[in-house]
């Protein structure tokens, strides 16, 4: 099978420099930082333009992540590269990540729904320009577009520890309606992407933009995951990747085409 099936979208994220901030603004001396995220921002929030483009913002007590189907950034507040700065006069909390543009978020309501508003939402990734859009809770996503991922894939998978130096630190997470990949770039800082089954296809709103299907190649059965549309996939125009579900060392394992190592559940 062609090596293009490898997760090029993930490997290329470090080269895209989407978040690179050449002229990072210095924090004012009187700016106050905190060690945990504000409770009002915590949760999993989504932006969707109903045409196949979406962004997911996930905030826990110590982690902030913002992903879409092409790229994203996740950072742990426990990393010395990350600072959380209290709201400016406009009410935005600033997540300052060394070497990258900061993420701005504030909580509120919009159209009668709890919402957070933030920078890098929506099409900011494709244009490179700041876009401030509202993100809502999951009930704002179209339920008729959901596509189930086989149960055997559910959970988190990673490269064995003795292989981490060779492959960096790669993590895949599969849920019932989503698959996500992250690669560690710096301690506590990850690039990645997420495919959501709830997002409708750009050409057929009754179909999920996320697809998963089987394909046999050289007598091997691959599961293929990816998007129906390549509209928003930038790196090498690749929107699919192929995986063999198998066992190794007497435990479940995933083998990605083009990646010469097994990934195991943790």
Automatic annotation (TrEMBL):
Keywords: Signal
Annotated signal sequence range: 1-20
Protein name, entry field: GW domain-containing protein
Lineage: Bacteria, Bacillati, Bacillota, Bacilli, Lactobacillales
């Amino acid at each position: 099978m062609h090596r293009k099936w490898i997760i090029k979208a993930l490997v290329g994220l470090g080269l895209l420099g989407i978040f690179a901030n050449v002229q990072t603004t210095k924090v004012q001396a009187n700016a106050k930082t905190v060690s945990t995220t504000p409770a009002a921002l915590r949760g999993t929030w989504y932006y969707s333009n109903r045409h196949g483009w979406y962004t997911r913002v996930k905030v826990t007590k110590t982690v902030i992540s913002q992903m879409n189907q092409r790229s994203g950034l996740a950072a742990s507040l426990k990393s010395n590269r990350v600072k959380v700065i209290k709201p400016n006069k406009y009410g935005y909390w600033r997540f300052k990540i060394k070497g990258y543009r900061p993420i701005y978020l504030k909580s509120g309501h919009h159209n009668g729904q709890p919402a957070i508003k933030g920078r890098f939402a929506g099409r900011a990734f494709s244009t490179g320009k700041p876009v401030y859009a509202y993100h809502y809770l999951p009930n704002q996503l179209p339920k008729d577009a959901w596509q189930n991922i086989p149960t055997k894939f559910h959970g988190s998978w990673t490269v064995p520890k003795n292989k981490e130096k060779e492959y960096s630190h790669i993590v895949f997470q599969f849920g019932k309606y989503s698959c996500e990949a992250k690669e560690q770039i710096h301690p506590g800082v990850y690039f990645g992407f997420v495919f959501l089954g709830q997002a409708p296809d750009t050409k057929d709103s009754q179909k999920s933009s996320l697809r998963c299907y089987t394909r046999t190649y050289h007598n091997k059965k691959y599961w293929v995951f990816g998007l129906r549309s390549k509209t928003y996939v930038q790196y090498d125009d690749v929107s699919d990747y192929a995986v063999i579900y198998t066992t190794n060392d007497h435990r479940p394992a995933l083998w990605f085409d083009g990646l010469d190592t097994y990934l195991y559940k943790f």
